[in-house]
Amino acid sequence: MNGLEISEAYFQEYGMPMLREKFPELMPHVAAGLFGSGSECFGFDDEVSRDHDFDPGFMLLLPGEDEVDRKQEFALERAYAGLPKEFKGVERPKMAPVGGLRRGVMRAAGFFTDKTGNPTGELTVGQWLSVPSHALAEAVNGKVFFDGSGDLTRIRAGLARYPEDVRRKKLAGHLLLAAQAGQYNYTRCLKHGEAGAAQLAVIAFVQSAMEAIFLLNRVYQPFYKWRFRAMRALPKLSIEAELLEYLITTDNESQLAQDKYEVIEGIAADIIGELVDQGLTQANCSDLEKHAYSVNDGIADGNLRNLHILAGV
Predict the structure, then answer these.
(1) CB atoms within 10 A of CB 27
(2) What is the pTM of this model?
């Protein structure tokens, strides 16, 4: 069983009975699940993951104090703390995780403020543009085990995808950066004899190309250490993961540099093909920069369209 499965089983065996027997009045208000930070929330955990911050526990999310006051919250915290300390061979830690509270009783507003900057998840255009994609991924990953009011499910559904105009703005910016770094600056840096700068250009291309591919899949890009893992599971352009990894794990000597430039152009062509398939571009060329401006031109909201093309990156 992976961490998410262990957490759900622990909740069903101990958490749900606790709620029904000790807190029936809270059932319409409380929600339970596992999502947020941690590889297990993405289903990416393995044996290595269990060396820190690994816990069979679950989250219990409460609304504001108008519905569940601090006294009730404290009682729920005490009851949660009294649940079995080991489950399926996994022990609950005695100390708080390195990254802060990830299990137990918490306020939903605090969780969503931490991830998105907004307690209700109702983001402004500016927040949609500025909140890191990995934070949005952590707001909607994992699984909800129980939702008494339905509010948690509603908030997560509202955050599940970028609004289309925001997606286009962010996509346009990353296409432009990918063009500048990979199709233009990589070879120029090599001609200048700047091997380090050339590799930085490759890295910049890979970062923006990956973000663009996640956007084309309408999926949030997770924290950097899980990006390749997540990309390999995408329905579209997942094959590019191997090529992108090749670009940043090889050097830039002579013939290899030429091979890498051809790979960059091949990845660009595949991205452009997907842009065309989704009707996101009217440009007809191999230059990602021109496609970036075409994607931006397709934004319906005039105010957003007229912002600097890099406003979303």
Answers:
(1) 13
(2) 0.93
